[in-house]
Amino acid sequence: MQGILFVLSGPSGTGKGTVCKEVLNREDDLTLSVSATTREKRVGEVDGETYHYVTKDAFEAMIDKGEMLEYAQYNGNYYGTPKASIEELLNSGRDVLLEIEPQGALQVKKLFPEAVLVFLVPPSMAELKNRLITRGRESEAEIAERIANAKWELEQADKYTVLIENDDFEECVTEVLAYFYTKRKERAKIISLINEKV
Ligand code: 5GP
Known about the structure:
Layout: E1 5-9, H1 16-26, E2 31-32, E3 36-37, E4 52-53, H2 56-64, E5 68-74, E6 77-82, H3 83-91, E7 96-99, H4 102-111, E8 116-121, H5 125-135, H6 140-155, E9 162-165, H7 169-195
Parallel strand pairs: 1-7, 1-8, 2-7, 3-4, 8-9
Antiparallel strand pairs: 3-6, 5-6
Helix pairs in contact: 1-7, 5-6
This protein binds guanosine-5'-monophosphate.
């Protein structure tokens, strides 16, 4: 049986990157998909580990060749999930985790309706704004745009498998992992029923 495709998504500022990192720290049997991006490498990031850093031309060539499972433009850059590695991992029975923004998550759902989509939500819009201000990466205008986007993204919430609030970080990570384990347990049960000799 194929591995499970887990997608961790949510509005900008909900903490999906940090939650994803911690989930991977605690769970070995999960492979993170390394996305491709056209954005500049930040200090401390490693090509091939954090992202595959490619040029705009190379990214567009991958789109044209149908090599992207999904992609989105975010902040003036392309971000996307290369298809080949995901299919290979899932076919070999590995569970795969994607940490992507909501446009991409909804594209994945169209191609892989069986994917498990986790939507991280903030405790309040005021707190979301506060987190965006505190991380200090965006201008005031960009923050206003992120908040407007977040409202549209929240309207799509019913397309996800589960909603998890990221209020207390520790509780959120525990809840995400518990949900993943539930999904694995369900799959194991199905496999055992299918293989049962009667
Ligand atoms: P950052 O530039 O901060 O690493 O990422 C910006 C946003 O891009 C984050 O919301 C992250 O989840 C999203 N992202 C990273 N990789 C992908 C991807 O492969 N596809 C999509 N659609 N979004 C991605």
